[in-house]
User: Fold this.
Amino acid sequence: MVRIKYKEASGLDVERGRPTKGNKPAKSDLKNLYIKESKSIREVAELLGCSKNMVYRSLKNYNIELRKNIRRSVLHNYKISFLENGINKKGIRGLARELKISESTLRHHMKVRKREI
Assistant:
């Protein structure tokens, strides 16, 4: 602490805090991964080789709006073809029980995914 005060008093630039891990991500990379691919801040940080705090600060600097803190459905991990085949073989109720989700969640997810296509 004394060294920092001494350097500041003598007019030298002083870096505070921990050194950052990795380089600042590009705006295009952040838009692609965070917005288009809906990756989490941690996933983006791992892919770009920087810290999650760096990604968070970069999102703020580039005025990219942060998503709400909503838990994403596990159904996004499954391909639409897998879900459709499961519904054809087992029915909505059977597939929902197997995936340990409610029928209404599965119905809503299929409705939304079909609209996207």
In short: The two ends are 58 Å apart (CA to CA).
